[in-house]
Design goal:
Largest sheet: 8 strands, parallel, barrel
Helix content: 40-55%
Number of strands: 12
Distance between the termini: 31 Å
Low-confidence stretches: 1-8, 10-19
Structural class: alpha/beta
Mean pLDDT: 94
Strand content: 5-15%
Bound molecules: 3-hydroxypyruvic acid, zinc ion
Strand order of the largest sheet: 1-2-3-4-5-6-7-8
Number of helices: 27
Radius of gyration: 26 Å
Length: 643
């Protein structure tokens, strides 16, 4: 391609070339890069045609076969359509934050007469309903309209949690590029991320300086508010995250995880327990207090009791409540929370709400109507939701196909995202009939582990142990009896070793000792204290030597968080280029012969791709040639036939 670009360059053709010609003609390289990118993309499309989608968790193909329509939104007062592209973006809460800093921002939110809304659609909602598979392009397409429609929102939760690794692992995208692009499109609504305390966005602890580095990058690339939690409500672990956010100058939302229904008698996690954790969080210093009901077990009455008690003790504390609608009570619980004095509650776009996701924004607005102001206009919420209704069809191949609420969540306490995931796995393994058994065993596994607070990563520990017990046909007694002999999942041993912190009430003994045997040690202090600090300079040098000078500090952060995932992501990029520009229906569904695809690979550069033919399989090499027309020229790509 270089020679071709050189030979077709006009200056070169007329012979008017000089020694610095190549340096002075960057367009030459852009042309080469675009051609390389186009060729690599054809490689992906050809592979998809021959072998089908390789995206993990995909069942079938998208039900939406057209470009999604971007809804036109209307000024609620005048009814006039808003020209999103040519109207200045309205001011939002982010301007307050940028102009006045986190303290004043928090104070003003607290003083707001009403309850604000965080829209979780871009993070937790698709994590909980669609296996976290929503791609950047589909967020970006609706981002400019969202900046207008949800202008009064407290925040958009759009980053962190599982979105970070899934982006690289399954979508072949750079999570940092996602953040930066969304930020550029939405300058007025604060962005919020979910940080798993000392675990960052990983599944066990990292050295403290890795958390500091990651959080600084996140802040510099566009995150404003950090919801920091620790899966065990281990305050030493939580503090690592809180301190990192403070150092980076972000808004701290230190969070207590709410596990189980505290209204049931005899619960380990009761009102007294939560108030004690809140006292300690307040003593550490935070802008907001987060209450994180990850399973949706916070009943309306419990929300009233808990928030009223916190409010009575801390009248000035800004409180932000998160829930899942798994039991079907999410709207009622968030209404109760707002009435008890919560400053912000979480909800999701209507088509992306309900069941294991957050409750619907419009349903919450309707419930609060006439009583509590939210800063959002329901007509705009509904208009923007027309987009998400289409996305639900586009991503239909990742639906877990939940049929209704699961009020049994008060017993099994499985977090929203995990509930969908476990159901999906059970269906995939043909163990749909074992679903009830899986949920029952989850309860037993939780009991064996000492009744832990269950959220990533501890929920995975309980889930892994439950699946291990189901697949090996083990009872509770078997686990006690055979603890020294069984080959438990790594996550279970990590937990027992203490790599995820210390559970309230301590580890279950003698099970811990028996499970760990001589294979693992028992940590008696916070895991980060035993980890060697990361040497960022040497990692950067190493990455630059492997991947070239374009390596950024954020790549270093990705590598530190997920070294293997980062490496395979880079391999994928090397092979297929930047696939994030490929519309989702082309990314997930093999194109048909004669079908013409239009792909904007960068601003002003569009590829018109047409699939012409698929060759016969070669008996010698096991490959096929796939023929395309690319912007009018014939191209062929050879692909291994893995079918
Ligand atoms: C995550 O850690 O990804 C969660 O969503 C926990 O609720
Ligand atoms: Zn959640």
């Amino acid at each position: 391609p270089f020679l071709l670009a050189l030979l077709t360059n006009e200056t070169f053709i007329v012979g008017n070339c000089w020694t610095t010609f190549i340096d002075d003609t960057p367009s030459l390289f852009q042309m080469i890069t675009s051609q390389n990118r186009a060729t690599k993309m054809l490689g992906y499309l050809a592979d998809l045609v021959v072998n089908g989608s390789s995206i993990k968790g995909q069942v079938g193909v998208p039900k939406l076969d057209d470009e999604a329509e971007i809804p036109v939104i209307h000024d609620p007062k005048t009814g006039i359509a808003i020209d999103v592209e040519n109207t200045p973006i309205p001011r939002g809460w982010r301007q307050v934050l940028l102009e006045e800093g986190p303290e004043v921002f928090t104070k003003k939110v607290r003083e707001f007469k009403g309850t604000l809304i965080t829209d979780t659609t871009w993070r937790d909602a698709h994590q909980s309903l669609l296996a976290t598979r929503v791609r950047t392009i589909d967020l970006l397409n609706i981002a400019p309209t969202t900046a207008f429609a949800l202008n009064g929102a407290f925040s958009l939760e759009c980053w962190g949690g599982a979105t970070f690794d899934v982006c690289m692992r399954f979508l072949y995208e750079d999570p940092w590029a996602r953040l930066k692009k969304l930020r550029a499109a939405v300058p007025n609504i604060p962005f919020q991320m979910l940080l798993r305390g000392a675990n960052g966005v990983a599944y066990s602890s990292l050295p403290d300086n890795a958390i500091d580095h990651f959080v600084k990058e996140a802040k510099d690339n566009g995150v404003d508010i950090f919801r920091v939690f620790d899966a065990l409500n281990d305050l030493d672990q939580l503090k690592v995250g809180i301190d990192a956010v403070k150092k980076a100058g972000g808004v701290v939302e230190a969070t207590v995880c709410y596990s189980g229904d505290m209204l049931q008698p005899g619960k380990k996690y009761n009102l007294e327990y939560y108030l004690d954790v809140v006292d300690k969080i307040v003593a550490m210093g935070t802008h907001f207090l987060g209450l994180k009901d990850m399973a949706g077990t916070l009943k309306p009455k419990a929300a009233t009791i808990l928030i009223t008690a916190i409010r009575a003790k801390y009248p000035d504390l800004a409180i932000h409540v998160h829930t899942h609608d798994s039991a079907g009570t999410g709207v009622a619980s968030m209404t109760a929370a707002a009435k008890a004095g919560a400053d912000v509650v979480d909800a999701a776009s209507n088509s992306m709400s309900g069941m294991t996701s957050q409750p619907s924004i419009s349903a919450i607005l309707a419930s609060l109507e006439g009583d509590i102001e939210t800063g959002l206009e329901d007509s705009l919420v509904r208009e923007i939701d027309n987009y998400w209704a289409q996305m639900r069809l586009l991503y239909s191949c990742f639906e877990a196909d939940l049929k209704g609420p699961d009020p049994e969540v008060y017993q099994h306490e499985i977090p929203g995202g995990q509930l969908t995931n476990l159901l999906f796995q059970a269906q995939q393994l043909g163990l749909g009939s074992k679903w009830v058994q899986t949920k029952e065993t989850y309860k037993i596994a939780n009991k064996l582990l000492g009744d832990v607070v269950k959220v990533t990563p501890t929920s995975k520990v309980v889930g892994d142990l439950a699946q291990f017990m189901v697949s090996n046909n083990l009872s509770e007694e078997d686990v006690y009896k055979l603890a020294g002999e069984l080959d438990f999942p790594d996550s279970v041993l990590d937990f027992m070793e203490g790599l995820m912190g210390t559970p309230y009430g301590g580890f279950p003994e003698p099970l811990r000792t028996n499970m760990l045997g001589t294979k693992r040690q028992k940590l008696s202090s916070r895991p980060g204290l035993n980890l060697t600090p990361v040497d960022f300079d040497s990692i950067k040098q190493e990455l630059v030597s492997r991947y070239g000078p374009t390596i950024k500090e954020s790549d270093v952060a990705s590598y530190v968080m997920y070294p293997k995932v980062f490496e395979s992501y880079k391999k994928q990029v090397e092979k297929y280029g930047i696939l994030s520009v490929l519309p989702t229906r082309y990314f997930l569904k093999p194109c048909r012969i004669g079908q013409e695809l239009t792909v904007d690979i960068e601003q002003g550069k569009t590829l018109i791709i047409k699939l012409l033919a698929i060759g016969e399989i070669s008996q010698q090499t096991g490959t096929r040639e796939v023929f395309f027309e690319l912007n009018g020229e014939m191209r062929s790509v050879t692909v291994d036939d893995k079918t």
